[in-house]
Amino acid sequence: MGVIQNPGDDFTIDQDWSAYTGEDHAIWRALFERQSKLLPGRACAEYLAGLQDLGVAAEGIPDFARLSDIMERATGWRIVAVPGLVPDDVFFAHLAARRFPATNWIRSPAQMDYLQEPDVFHDVFGHVPILMNPVFADYLQAYGRGGLKALSLGALPKLARLYWYTVEFGLIATPEGLRIYGAGIVSSHGESVYSLESPKPKRIAFDLLRIMRTQYRIDAFQDAYFVIENFDQLFDATGPDFTPYYARLKSMPDIAPGAGVDGDRLI
Ligand code: HBI
Ligand code: FE
C-alpha cells in the first residue's frame, strides 16, 4: 500500500482497493485456494453459506464496499477499513454499531502460515462470512456493548477470553459432527485440521464462566477449544448483565490453557 493515511478518531481509513498490487492479490489467491480445499466438511454450514453468498472468491482481495452492501441487506453489518489493531474502546464501539473493523493490508509471502496480528485475509475470510448469520451478527454486536461495559468495570481481561474462545477459536457440534466457526481457525491452514483432528487439545462443552477463567496462548495452536450446540446458545448465555459474573470471578482462580477442572464436559 503506497499512501500512508492518518486515521481519524474512529481509526477508520479508506480501504484504497486500487492500491493493491498483483502480488497482494496473488497472496490472497494462494491463501484462499488452500483454505477452500480444507473447509468443506470442517467449517460450519453457516460460515460456508456466508462465504458463498458474499461472493468472497479466489480471484483477489475483495472490495469492502461491495461486501458491505451485501452484508447490510442480510444482517445490517458493514465493514470499515482500519490500519491494524485499534484501541479496545474503539474496537468495541465499532462492533456495537454493527461495523466490523477489517485490516486493509495483506501479509507477506513469508507469513503464509502464521502471523500474530490480523491482516485482511484473517479479518475478511475469517470473520466476515459468519456475520451473514443473523444470530451470530447479534451476538457480536452484544459483545461490543459488553466490551464497553467491561472496560468501565475493569473486567476486560475476563471478557476478552470470551472473544478468544468463541469468535476466534469456537467449535460447534452439529448432527454431522464437530465443525469450526472461529475466525482464527478458519483462516489458519494448520489449525483448521488440528482443532478438529488432533488428540492433543481438550474440547469442552461451552460454559461461560469456565471460559472467562481460562487463560489462552497467542503463540501456538490452542490447548483447549469450547464447543457450542448452536448460535442461540451463545447469544442467550451472554444476554444477561455480566456485572455479577465479574464479581464472582474475582474469587475464582484462573485456569491454565490446557488444564481440566471438575464439571468439564468433554466432547
Ligand atoms: N483491533 N483491528 C482490530 N481487531 C481486533 O480483533 C481487535 C482490535 N482491537 C482490540 C481487540 N481486538 C480486543 O479488544 C478484542 O480481541 C477483545
Ligand atoms: Fe480475529
SSE inventory with pairings:
Blueprint: H1 22-38, H2 45-54, H3 64-75, E1 78-82, H4 88-96, E2 99-103, H5 120-127, H6 134-153, H7 156-168, E3 171-174, E4 177-180, H8 183-186, H9 189-197, E5 202-205, H10 208-213, E6 224-228, H11 231-237, H12 243-249
Parallel strand pairs: 1-2, 3-6, 5-6
Antiparallel strand pairs: 3-4
Bound molecules: 7,8-dihydrobiopterin and fe (iii) ion (FE).
7,8-dihydrobiopterin (HBI) binds next to α4, β2 and α7.
How many DSSP helices? 12
Mean pLDDT: 95
Count all strands and give the number: 6
Q: What's the number of domains?
A: 1
Measured distance between first and last alpha carbons: 44 Å
Main sheet characteristics: 4 strands, mixed
List the defining traits of the structure above.
267 residues, alpha/beta, Phenylalanine Hydroxylase, 12 helices, binds 7,8-dihydrobiopterin, binds fe (iii) ion
Structural description of this entry:
The protein has a single domain, classed as Phenylalanine Hydroxylase (Orthogonal Bundle), CATH 1.10.800.10. By secondary structure, it is of the alpha/beta class. Helix 10 links the parallel strand 5 and strand 6. The strands form two sheets. The protein has a four-stranded mixed β-sheet with strand order 4-3-6-5. A two-stranded parallel sheet has the order 1-2. The protein is built from twelve helices and six strands. The protein has helices spanning about 20-40, 45-55, 65-75, 90-95, 120-125, 135-155, 155-170, 185, 190-195, 210-215, 230-235, 245-250, and strands spanning about 80, 100-105, 170-175, 175-180, 200-205, 225-230. It binds 7,8-dihydrobiopterin (HBI) and fe (iii) ion.
